[in-house]
Every structure is written in structure tokens, then in C-alpha cells.
Amino acid sequence: MPSLQVLYQPGAVMCLLIVCLILETAHGQHDWRNLLSLNMKISPMKNANQFEVKLTITNNENKCMAVKVSTEDNANIKYLSAHATYTACICATNNFFWEIQGSAKTFLQVKAEVVSAKGVCPDGEKTYPVTTYMKTVTREILVTP
């Protein structure tokens, strides 16, 4: 109990509040909610070093949200169909696909970003407000020599 009496001094209380504010500020800028869940699977195709990439995005909110999905440019990855960037209204779960060919061992990174729902989600749909929320997922691609 005598050790807690130090906190009754105004200077100690002020220092404690400052430390708490500093620690909270560092974490307060992050969105603690997990708005989206990303699951990426990379499956080999029949031809050597060709893969099908399937990204499943699950909306963890009770409101629909417009999500822009893109892959990071990578010199070791060639897109067989198209290097597509998708924008979709996700209310529950959506799947996105790419067919790629790898020329060397590399990593594929996919980004999902919440964007304005205007023109993407149907009018009258309860939508999540625009935010700066973004989530990425990265997987290694192993190619055979």
C-alpha cells in the first residue's frame, strides 16, 4: 500500500497519464477490427510452373462493403489470363481467381482495400462507410527448375 501512495502526487499522476496516452496513441491509429478475412490458395495446374490462385474474402461486418482487390507487380510472375484488378461489393464471401506462371521462386502478394461503395454496391444496400482499411496476404510460389 505505501508504494501506491507515490501515485497520489500530482507529478506522478501526470507522468502516468502521459505514458498511457503515448502508448494508446501508437495503437489508436490502427483499425483493431478485422473487417475482412483473406484466404489465398495456390494450386498447381497441369503445365509446369503454372498455378491457379484463388483468393477468398470474407466480410466480417453486418454491412456490405466495396473492396478493390489487386496483386503486387512481380517480374517473376506472368499472368496467363489477365493481370486483373477487381472491385466488388462483398456482403458475405467472394472468390477471386488468377492464372499465373512463375519463372523463379518468388512471392505473390494480394491486397484487399475498402473503397467507396458508390457505383459498386446496389443502391439501398446497407454499406460500410469508406475507411482506410487495407489487408494483404502473401504466399510463396515454388517453381521447378
Description:
Pfam families: SVA. The protein contains one helix and eight strands, in the order H-E-E-E-E-E-E-E-E. The chain is mainly beta and 145 residues long. The strands form two sheets. It has a four-stranded antiparallel β-sheet with strand order 1-2-6-4, with no helix packed on it. A hairpin with a 5-residue loop joins strand 1 and strand 2. The protein is flat, with a radius of gyration of 22 Å. The chain starts with 9 loop residues before the first helix and ends with a strand. Residues 24-31 have low confidence and may be disordered.
Summarize the structure.
This protein is mainly β and 145 residues long. Helix content is 13%, strand content 43%. The protein contains 1 helix and 8 strands; from the N terminus they run αββββββββ.
Structural topology:
Layout: H1 10-28, E1 36-44, E2 50-59, E3 65-71, E4 77-79, E5 86-90, E6 93-102, E7 106-115, E8 134-141
Mean pLDDT across residues:
85
Q: Uncertain spans, ≥5 residues at pLDDT below 50?
A: 24-31
For the biggest β-sheet, the strand order reads 1-2-6-4
Order of helices and strands: HEEEEEEEE
Proportion of beta-strand residues: 35-45%
Main features:
1 helix, 4-stranded antiparallel sheet, mainly beta, Prolactin-induced protein
